[in-house]
Amino acid sequence: SYNSPQREVVWYIGNLAPREARSVTLDVVITDNAPLNTIIENIAQVESKHITQSSNVVNIRVVDSISGAALAFFGGNGFLPSTLLEWLLLIIFILVLVVLSRKLYGYFEETKEKKTK
Known about the structure:
Elements: E1 2-3, E2 8-9, E3 39-42, E4 45-47, E5 52-54, E6 58-61, H1 65-74, H2 84-116
């Protein structure tokens, strides 16, 4: 159900036995008329007769699709490494590619020279 004045969406997930787990996934679609840089706050809260427990706050920032795609590709948990180890592995991988390509180029140049003689 949706509580408009509180801006809350409530799901009833039924009864859970002790130590039983249930998963809820939230997919969000932002409308085209949402103002850029709007922050949407998401908090999950579980309530029972005996306890109320809230999750960490998850903030969703509205960005345009082009800059959002660029952020995902060039940073923000996307294409580029995020730790020193990942950067070192990427550098080593690039160096191996350079060495292999130089070896292959040299091999093909040698083969070409032999054919022309």
